[in-house]
Amino acid sequence: MSCFDVAIIGAGMAGASLAAALAPHRSVLLLEAEDRPGYHSTGRSAAFWTESYGGPGVQPLTSASYDRLSDGGYLTPRGALHLAEGADTALADRFLQTFAESGIALDRIGRQGIEALVPRIRDGWTDGVWEASCQDIDVAALHADYLSTARANNVALRCRAGLQRAHFRAGCWTIETKAGSFEAALLVNAAGAWADRVAEACQVRPLAIQPLRRTIAQLRIDPPTTAALPLILGLDGSFYCKPDAGGRLWLSPHDETPTVPGDAAPEEVDVARAIARLQDVVDWRVEVVEHRWAGLRSFAPDRLPVIGPASDHDRFFWFAGQGGFGIQTAPAAADLAARYILGEAGPELGRQIEPAAYAPARFD
Ligand SMILES: Cc1cc2nc3c(=O)[nH]c(=O)nc-3n(C[C@H](O)[C@H](O)[C@H](O)COP(=O)(O)OP(=O)(O)OC[C@H]3O[C@@H](n4cnc5c(N)ncnc54)[C@H](O)[C@@H]3O)c2cc1C
User: Fold this and answer.
1) Looking at the whole model, is its pTM more than 0.85?
2) Is the CB of 146 under 6 A from ligand 1?
């Protein structure tokens, strides 16, 4: 049995992006529990890149990912409208204040601007913030390209190889999976919703990473959406929606239901809540719910990603807690993790990224 330099547990966006970054420098084993990579959160996202999404603590990773996503051809301009109802201007005020120092181009718009962006918007929606930089991301292409870069650089990908337990002895992890045993000098936990379970199976202290269910419904509506429709997000956090091909709409109630790791399924009540909210906002007729799905967004207690060696085991590396931003932050997060692992972490990491903000040691 050969001993890999690094074993990465989980081949979603996190594991695949890190495998691609490490592959030219280290021997890498990528272990995935499912039949194929990307079955869980990565395959279920709303596929947008929005700099403000996730808050100011996440934004440096999102902003720093832009060039690589854009250069790779994964982005399509969309624009985001953060929308508030009624005469209460406090929501938009607070939102703008939160990002005042961020460098994100955010413009306050009133009723006239909102009407120009959203056909048949109902009365009462009079306050908004326009985030021009928002983009759609081609998630499947990004994930596939990370996996093919990894394979081209000799990463060994094993599917149906869920980690069951692992032991560290004499400088080496022995990893027991359904597909047999493997050895590696460093173990990376990129198991998404299962991150705490993987830590426990490795006798490492879990970090209270909580999976929260998020629902999306694909609707056929009248009038059909056009490509010009922006991503529309309620500033009160009660919904978001964006157009999809063929005049369809993707709609979410922005739900965050705590759940256990697993194959998340949508609940009818969440779909109904989303549609009811949509109908408060626009005069659009919902013709049919064509498709619905749910996925897990997994958060550390402070809702920032966890990137760095475990405090209680320096050969166990956390790459988890990607919450609702694991696609849009993938290039910069993988870069940060790879630099740590390759021993290059330091102030030269540059931009506004502060590695300590994401280090597991913040929970000690
Ligand atoms: C509805 C929804 C909308 C979203 N919209 C966006 C968006 O617009 N933009 C954005 O940036 N992000 C979005 N996200 C968040 C994004 O999808 C996640 O942050 C990202 O996919 C997390 O990637 P991951 O690799 O950490 O997790 P996952 O994709 O879940 O991958 C983890 C993998 O680990 C595997 N695994 C688990 N346990 C084991 C084990 N013991 N052994 C081996 N393998 C194991 C799992 O099978 C899984 O494949 C959204 C998420 C949801 C659910």
Assistant:
1) yes
2) no
